[in-house]
Amino acid sequence: MDLTQPKIHVPASVAEKVIHTITLLLIIAAFVYTMMVYPGLPEPIPIHFNAQGDVNNWGSKAIIFLLPAISLVLFIGLYFLNKVPHIYNLPVKVTEENASRIYSLARTMMAIFNFEMAAIFTYVTFEIIQVAQGGSGTLGVWFIVAVFLVPLGTIGLFIQPMRHRQ
């Protein structure tokens, strides 16, 4: 962390507010869906999948609430972290002249990252429920690759504009 980065207030953009709203609605939907199907879930349910997407561990059906709960905690943490972009470790030198633009980009990137994490956890929760109900899951190598590439791609897409016109 560069302690010399300017500490300025950058208001949330409309895009950032929309992304946060969609993320929160996704997390709420994950909780609601999980609560709706919970009574009909068998005991035990799948709690871990190997790289091919096959179940390799089973556990209590109460565990199904863990991923939406983690998603909510992450959302809250990243939401409040988004309010202090001056503490971010950014790939460019932040000055008084570029701080507003850089912080705005960083805040939007973090909002998108927050959405991506919520989407991943929601999708895994849905897949666990599908497999527990006797369906076939689609978790596998492609999913693992996507879990790494999508957030890295987001970071890459935002670093380029940050470096442009420093």
Automatic annotation (TrEMBL):
Annotated DUF1648 domain residues: 25-71
Nucleus as UniProt keyword: no
Name of the molecule in the record: DUF1648 domain-containing protein
Transmembrane segments: 21-41, 61-81, 102-126, 138-159
One biological process term in Gene Ontology: response to toxic substance
Lineage: Bacteria, Bacillati, Bacillota, Bacilli, Bacillales
Record's keyword terms, sorted: Membrane, Transmembrane, Transmembrane helix
One Pfam family cited in the UniProt record for this chain: DUF1648
